[in-house]
Amino acid sequence: MRKHCGLIRCLVAALVAGAALSTPASVPRANPDGDVLLRAMQDELSRSVARLKLKELEKPYFIEYVLEDEDSFSVSATFGALTARSRTRTRSFGARTRVGSYDFDQTGFISSLPPYSAEGFSSPLVVEDNYDALRHDIWLTTDGAYKQALEHLSRKRAYLQNKTVEEKAADFSREEPAIAVASLQTLRLEESQWERRVREWSVIFREFPAIQGSGVEFGVQLAHRYLINSEGTRIRQPILLVSFTAHAHAQTAEGVDITHSVRLYANNLEEFPAPEEVARTIRRMAEELTALRAAPALEGKYLGPALFTGQASAELFAQMLAPHLAGGRPPLTENPYSSPQKSALADRLNRLVLPAFIKVYDDPTERESEGRALLGAYKIDDEGVAARRVSLVEDGVLKNLLMSRRPSKEFARSNGHGRGAGTGAAEPLIGNLFVRAKDGQSIADLKKQLIKTCRAQNLAYGILVKALYADPAPDGMGLSAPLLAYKVYVEDGREELIRGVTVEDISVRALRQIIAAGDDLFVHNTFTGNVPASVVAPAVLLEEVQLNKITGAQQKPTILTHPYFSK
Amino acid sequence: MNGTNKNFARRGLLCVCALVSLIAPGGLARPATEDAVSKALVEELRRAKEALGQKGNPPPYFISYQVMEVESTLISASYGALRLSATNRARLLDVDVRVGDYRLDNTHRLRGDGATDYTGGYTQPVSLPIEDDVDAIKSAIWLKTDEKYKEAVKRLIHVQTNRAVKVEEEDQSADFSRETPQVASLPPVRLKLNAAAWEKKVRELSAVFMKHREIHSSAVLLVEEALNKYLVNTEGAALRHGKTQATLVILATTKADDGMDLFRFETFEAFTPEGLPTDETLKQAVEKVSSDLLALRQAPVIEPYTGPAILTGRASAVFFHEIFGHRIEGNRQKDEAEGGTFTKRRNLPVLPPFISVYDDPTLERYAGVDLAGSYRFDDEGVKAERVAVVQNGMLKNFLMSRSPILGFEKSNGHGRKFPGFAPVGRQGNLIVQAARTVPRARLRQMLIAECRRQRKRFGLLFEDVAGGFTTTARSTPQAFQITPIMVYKVYTDGRPDELVRGVDIIGTPLVSFSKIIASDDQPEIFNGSCGAESGMVPVSAVAPGILTAQIEVQKRQKSPELPPILPPPAFDKSETARQARGNR
């Protein structure tokens, strides 16, 4: 996607607004009919379908409009004072036109010349309900998208003149149109109250002298997501997202920097934890960081069993399994700098990919699990296809992959997992990923098994990982670094926190080494590929994992000290 | 020829992030310690000086803290509907720590392959709390100071090694000048805008463009900024001073049938929103932008041309800013990677003898127009000074920051920057004066005469330009390019002037300067934002119209994209009919 008209873009450089409203979250808007946005989009779509055609060239066979009408509030603070606050209204609009046919169109091809691909055009729309003004912006965006699609199709055809394609499948699946127009909502929240809370949460760090820097961010965003297309799909759904982040950093006596952060998400303010609970979360994080600062580093390497519990286990599946469950084909490319890879599991259908006692499915239609709301829940995906449960791994055998409307050799249809952030093109991604194990054990038993395995391998201790950093590994490969890792001593089972470890490059194959799983289920609400998702997974014991000590140049400890704690 | 609105300055370069304005009048000069920001800065400076003085090896010889507090309201609309209405507040801290001494410190330029240029470096400024909590503000300062100190120590070692292994430098000036510390605490400035009233105004103005089928994109934008700057350093400077500025931009774009992208804009500036023109004047400006743009669509494309031309005041002000102003900025004379067009030409002629140039940031208005480039203290806390750069065509002085050059040991208050950048000598208000002038009508006659002498059928008249860029580095040609918007052919046979499109002025500076024949008696003002190695800073340039014997233009590159296929929805007759039938 690319922005339209450069000059206007610079004028619309996103800044922030302030306007105080009151009372709880989102409430239905008074006049749910007469949606000018929907009407403007629908009228311009009809006109384009009827008449958008350049000279002797092809008409678009498919046109789709996506719009996110967003009202968002955000506030951040450090050490007891706000660093920023904003209330912003934005409308981002995307037009996608497909030329050619369902079997062969301009998509799924990366050319060697800019703009490299032609997935659509996007641009901001005016934020007021002015029919003519809205249509004007929509018109220009559609025009740009269509011309680019035409040019890209001719490039794709030229490229294929002297190439044979291994995997033949259509470029776009045919699906039933969906109509779901939910009523409009209004974002209602007591901004000053949230500002006060954020300020109070941030001041908690004044209790922790070991912490050098910290921050707290809170946001509430109400987006009305519109999707209409030339097949008759017509969707309007309000989506509320509450997000919270606290982050902090400290330095060990040797000058090694350590960071810690926690993120909380909810789909409405009622589900968001109470202020005291958030405060407890922050304190726990600050205590953990303080403990990490004093914790010993791993001496040398560790090669042996590792038990992943809670967030660490869910994050393990989110990072190591979820990305490889995407079906579809990688795009064709004539660009030497772009070599899109198939997912690592794409060729392993009907083969064992996990231990036989594990099953995996994705079900966006589940609203909650273990009493917790699931962030990855949705009814209709971002291509207008109804969400459905997809059984992915049964008895350890890969049965299905997640599909958007881009078909593969094996799967001709979408299974309701085409997801896109903002107005971006949809790709197959998880919604709510469930990992279940037969005959799960208690955490205590898993720990016993960890010790037993260590003893068999003559190790003095095993490793227990309770949390992973949510950010990807430094080299973008493998698993992110453990945040809370413990040595579990064989002699007495005691746990000792260690710091500064990384997991040696592991791949999806490592999951086959799971030798035992828990009877618990941890609900992890997160973001994958910039879309909200949930991973629900039990603790897992991996037979062999290699941990390394973080290496690299160390800084000298700071000379200056924190002014607040130096008084 | 269109009349320039005398009360309002134009803005040539388009950038909404520009921070422009007026220095708050009055105010008692007292140490800036009352407010939370000043208090936090002063206390942290004292602590850092003490701790690094005792434990630092080597200790720093200079530390400074600078905060830019910016509050801005931005309202924009297109086709009668708001795109954005937002207010933003931020406090950005820059920390400078120097080790070594005034003669040689860590900021000294490294020379040779792969050496990085210190002043080209950008450091993300620290976002300070926007609330007045001294403890919270202080908590955000110390770590950056520690980091900058360590960087400085490391770089000083590189500097010393680099000097030891390279040939002697051409310019052996010190790295940092000694200046009298300034102390002033002026009242903070605040936003004054009535957002609802301006939303209405901006919305209404933007609706006017909807009348014109051929105008594709358009917008009206209003920005009001209140900018307060704080500076403290270990030499004893303690400053707080503020400026406000309101800017209104009217912009429209279209495509000619051959695919050429065309745009036209008009800007108005004043110290406060109330100072902006009346609704009627603004509406006329929208109409003028529209009619100019529609005329441009129909205008023929110019072929490459070399010959005489007039640049009216508004065009020549940009011309001087770009091709002359950037070459008298002090830092450029020292850097061995720079071309140094003027470095060794002090007391030698660089312009025709009837032209003088000075830069005066202390000038707030010129002919009743507010000057965007005015300020009282520069970004190194040095008092702004009027600098006579060229007298009767002879080069006399450079625009100096605290980085001295051979023969110029002191700053003259031109060290400027945007947060995150290191300051360099930049223009403020560049004023070009002509000792010998002719009326504008006479300048036109002289143009025609010069065309005849050169056996040209026509000369060019540049009425409006949209800024440009210039290259001053040694590794690139010493050239410039300016994008004119409204250019006319002035025929020698008495035909009416003809608007042309697709023109870029090209050429090399020394040639262009030497070809100036005459100037008119109507100086005009360019208010804009200028981007260079120390980031975007607000600038003004004032110059009379000039006649030059030779200017070279080239054809502008045009886009291969066609204009939109369908008519604008509001102009689609079949569409209107369909809607009238209620057949959605």
Secondary-structure blueprint of this entry?
The complex is a heterodimer of chains A (567) and B (584).
Chain A: E1 2-3, H1 6-11, E2 26-28, H2 36-51, E3 60-78, E4 81-99, E5 109-110, E6 121-124, H3 131-160, E7 179-181, E8 185-187, H4 191-203, E9 211-229, E10 234-251, E11 257-266, H5 275-294, E12 302-308, H6 310-320, E13 332-333, E14 358-362, E15 368-369, E16 372-373, E17 390-394, E18 397-398, E19 418-419, E20 427-428, E21 432-437, H7 443-456, E22 461-468, E23 482-489, E24 495-498, E25 501-503, E26 514-517, E27 522-528, E28 531-537, E29 540-549
Parallel strand pairs in A: 1-6, 5-13, 7-10, 12-22, 21-28
Antiparallel strand pairs in A: 2-8, 3-4, 3-9, 4-6, 9-10, 10-11, 12-29, 14-17, 14-21, 15-16, 17-18, 19-20, 22-23, 23-24, 25-29, 26-29, 27-28
Helix pairs in contact in A: 2-3
Chain B: E1 10-11, E2 22-23, H1 36-55, E3 60-78, E4 81-99, E5 126-128, H2 134-139, H3 142-165, E6 183-185, H4 195-207, E7 217-233, E8 238-255, E9 261-270, H5 279-298, E10 305-311, H6 313-323, H7 331-334, E11 355-359, E12 365-366, E13 369-370, E14 387-391, E15 394-395, E16 415-416, E17 424-425, E18 429-434, E19 437-438, H8 440-453, E20 458-470, E21 480-491, E22 498-500, E23 503-507, H9 509-514, E24 516-520, E25 524-532, E26 535-543, E27 546-555, H10 573-580
What keyword list fits this structure?
heterodimer; A: 567 residues; alpha+beta; seven-stranded mixed β-sheet; 29 strands; globular; disordered N terminus; B: 584 residues; eight-stranded mixed β-sheet
Structure, briefly:
By secondary structure, chain A is α+β, with helices and mostly antiparallel strands. In chain A, 19% of the residues lie in helices and 33% in strands. Chain A has helices spanning 6-11, 36-51, 131-160, 191-203, 275-294, 310-320, 443-456, and strands at residues 2-3, 26-28, 60-78, 81-99, 109-110, 121-124, 179-181, 185-187, 211-229, 234-251, 257-266, 302-308, 332-333, 358-362, 368-369, 372-373, 390-394, 397-398, 418-419, 427-428, 432-437, 461-468, 482-489, 495-498, 501-503, 514-517, 522-528, 531-537, 540-549.
